[in-house]
Amino acid sequence: MGIRESHTFSAWKWLGFVSAVWVQTISGNNYTFSNYSDAIKTLMNLTQLQLNNLSVAKDVGKAFGLLAGLASDRLPTPVILLIGAIEGLIGYGAQWLVVSQKIHPLPYWQMCIFMCLGGNSTTWMNTAVLVTCIRNFRRNRGPVSGILKGYVGLSTAIFTDLCSALFSDDPARFLVMLAVIPFAVCLVAILFLREIPQSTSVAAEKEEARYFAIFNIVAVVVAVYLLTYDLIGSTNQVFSLVFAVILLILLASPLAVPIYAFVKSWRLVGFEADMERQQPLLKEETTSPPAETKEIITEVAAAASADDATVLVEKTKPVIGEEHTIMEAMQTWDFWVLFTSFLCGVGTGMAVINNMAQIGLALGHADVSIFISLTSIWGFFGRIISGSVSEYFLKKAGTPRPLWNAASQILMAVGLLLMALALPGCLYIGSIVVGMCYGVRLAVTVPVASELFGLKYYGLLYNILILNLPIGSFLFSGLLAGYLYDAQATPTPGGGNTCVGAHCYGLVFIIMAMASLIGFGLDVLLAIRTKNIYTQIFNSRKPKKSLAASNGQ
Question: Is 310 a residue whose pLDDT tops 60?
């Protein structure tokens, strides 16, 4: 492969990553239910349990993400994106028709189906994006996961703030955004997102690190910008319009990376021509490798032949850190420890996110949009910081990634207990803590799964882990929060109910804090069991760095 072709591939890879960032920016619509749940509850005269079960139906859509996982190894990325885009258009479009009162409220079971379609749409988008980008950037899985999952976290704040700025928090218009914008963005990503041949050079790895630093900086600027807007809370129409325009410019700014990469590849045309003129001399010099090299190659080939013979005699199960089929992964203790700890983390987080509207009202806050945005923005910080920090300590000291999940579980328990006490300002702090810890859990688990069980069947493996979202939503939101809230609530005329006071969710928060502590114990256990794997990953990268240093001398 010529120098120019190599850099052109790199430019296309970064263009695909930018389009992946845009897809993630709009694929967090599953976390926006609180923005329009009160309108649905009022129009359909639902109890809190019925409303929570609608939310569970939305999350059950993620269970069908197994289909996206199976398809990821059989269908091209553009087809997977298109399926997700169409599903989202139908699912959220039907909800818009109901909330805008264009049609009469649908029967409850039909609303569950459309909720499920909307929830399932994001699994196709996330699978296409994560599988493709993790494979394109195999040596930087932490930053890739942190950045992409970070933008998922930001998407709730982006949708919420744009709707607040342009449409005064109108739930019907909010649903139009959820239906149309993801569809349009996915159509754009279809053109650019695909797997690109890998470059394993030291220079390419350093270039990736520099570019990821730029993506991190842009993402942090977007998050701070959104947080500033939330704190200012201006209702001036001109100010809101300016905010929306600047936000769109910030979201488009990562395009500078692939543009720079394309310009860099064009500048290398002349350099490559000079290299081609010197090619015969280079061929003469490299045609006959040194005797030592031949000896090493012979020894490696002999060792490989011996290994192959051993495999033919007896096929052994893969060990942790090697490529696993789904059945092989599910036969290990490590998979179920990871699965259960993930359930404790995301289940409790989903319960808070799905019930934020009612939690805010119970604690005396009529407008909960600020808490939804805080959860989203700090969820972003949790994802992007944990992705980069876990990668840094893995490369520097071989620190097992599950330790970061353990730390997030302890902090999550503290945040839940703080909200159970219902002290002044507790919901502000609780929203920040829960959002950040939920973000850490999502960002760190993605590379952990690929490091323990391999990338060959990663699409399906990822979607099996994501089953914890509907399971956790059902257990902690649908059952626990729904039943305990209704037990404390007062019926309202015309159907439905309401509850005001710390007692509405106090016991819910305490039980979820206990679940978080269980998750902490499981994460510590997984970190101990996988310590050797992360030591091997750490050691495997040291020779490459030493070789690069010796070549530079």
Answer: no
